[in-house]
C-alpha cells in the first residue's frame, strides 16, 4: 500500500518537472519553430534509451525574489542514452525555465554529466538554448561557467565533445561550444554572440539584429565557429547521428568498421581534372570517386571553402580528408583555410583517424590583407599540425604543388608516410610564368622579341621542373600513379600503416602558434 502511495508521489513530482516552464513558455518555444529540450534528446538517442538524472535538483538562490521561484530541473536536463547502440552523455538546456539561464545548480548538473562522460570515455553532447549566466545568481553563475570551461579543456582530445546551438547562446556561454570539437547550428534558430544587440546599441550606438550579429549563417560562413549548418532542428539532429557514425568514441577506441561499398560509378576519377591547368574542378568529385559509397561527409562546408575537410571511409574504415579546393580561389592557402585544416588535423590525430591530403594549389594568397591578418602565424599552424600528427598520413599531389604550399600540404618533409602524385603534377618553387619572369628577366628583356623569348623560357622551365619526376627522382614522391589506381593504393597504404608507431621527443607539450 505504502509503495503504491510512494509511486504515486514520484509520478506526481515527475509530472511537475516534466511540465518545464509551463504551458505558455512551451507554446512560445514551439511558435519559434523549436523543439522542447526533452523532445530534442528523445529525437536524438536510440528509441527508449534515455535515462535522466538530477530531475529533482532545485536552485538555491535567495536574492531578487528567487526564493519564491521554483525552476523545474533548474532549467537543464542531463542524462545518458545510446546512439548507434553506443553510450553518450547529454545535457540540454530548457529555455522554458528561466530562459535556460545558468545558475549554480544548473551548472552542477552539467558538470556532473561532463564528469560521467570523461570517466566512462563516451561522447558528450551539449544542447545549448540559454540566456547565459543567470543574472540573479551573480558570481555563482560565473563560477559555473568556469567549471564547465575547465572540464571542456580536460576532456579535449579524450572524448568527442559536440555542441548544438538551438536557441540563444549568449555572453561567456559561447566559450563552452568554442572549446568543443564540433558545433552544430540551425538556420534562424541558433544565435551566438558575446555582447548582444542591446549592449552594442548602448555602447556603440549601432543597431543590428541577433540574426545578423550571430545567426547560424554568420557562424557557418563568416566566423567559422560552426561546423555543421542545417535548415531545421530535425536535420541538425540527423547530422549529429551521421557524424557519430564516423568518429571513434574516445581516443583509445577505433571507429566502427562498416560494410565496404565501392564508389558510385557516376564519379569517373580519370575525367575530373581538366587538361588546361588554369581550369578549376571540384575536389569533392575526386573524393566521391575514391571513398566508399561516394559518401564524403564535409565539415565546415560554408567557411574557408578553398579548403575542403571532412570524413569518408576507405575499406569500411574512417579517414579524415584535407584537400585544396581548386574551385574556390584556385585552392590557395590563406589565414582561414590554414586554421580550418590545422584544427581538423589535430582532431584526427587525437582520435587516431588516418589523414589523406589531396594537393592542388598555387601557394599562399598574396596581399596586404593576408599579411596583416597574420598569414605567417596562421599558416604556421598548418605546418605544426601536420608535423606533430603521428597518425598515418597519406598525400596525393593531383596537379599544382607550388612553393610553401607544397611543403605545408603534408609533404614528405613533414613526415607524410606515403606521397603519391598523378602524372600531370607540377611541383616547383612557383608557377612557371612567375619563375621565368624572375630567373630569365635579362634574356627576356634583351631579346628581339621579348614575348616570344618569355614563352620559350616558360616552356623550358615547365619541362625541367613542373612535373613530378624531379621530386620522384629524389624519393620525395613514392610513386607516380594513374588516377584509376588511386583508391587501390590508398586502401593499401591504410592497411600497411595500421600499426604505425613512432616516438616523438619527450615533452610536456609543444607550443603551437595558436
Ligand atoms: C536570468 C534570464 C536570463 C538571464 C533570460 N532570462 N536570460 N534570467 N538570467 N541571463 C529569463 C527572462 O527574464 C525571462 O523570464 C525568460 O528567461 C525568457 O526570456 P525572454 O527575454 O522573455 O526571451 P526572449 O525574448 O526570447 O529573449 C531571449 C534573450 C534575452 C535574447 C536570451 O532573454 C536576453 O537578452 N537575455 C540576456 C542575455 C545576456 O546578455 N546574457 C549574458 C549574461 S552575462 P520570465 O520570468 O519573464 O519568463 C554572461 C557572462 C558569462 O553570460 C561569463 C562566463 C565567462
Architecture blueprint of SSEs:
Layout: H1 2-18, H2 23-31, H3 37-44, E1 51-53, E2 76-83, E3 86-93, H4 104-119, E4 124-130, H5 139-155, E5 161-170, H6 175-179, E6 182-186, E7 191-193, H7 197-204, H8 210-214, H9 216-222, E8 228-230, H10 233-246, H11 283-288, E9 297-299, E10 307-314, E11 317-324, H12 335-350, E12 355-361, H13 368-372, H14 375-388, E13 393-402, H15 403-408, E14 418-421, E15 426-428, H16 432-439, H17 441-446, H18 450-465, H19 469-473, E16 479-480, H20 486-496
Parallel strand pairs: 3-4, 4-5, 5-6, 5-7, 6-8, 11-12, 12-13, 13-14, 13-15, 14-16
Antiparallel strand pairs: 1-2, 2-3, 9-10, 10-11
The structure holds hexanoyl-coenzyme A (HXC).
Hexanoyl-coenzyme A (HXC) binds next to helix 5 and strand 5.
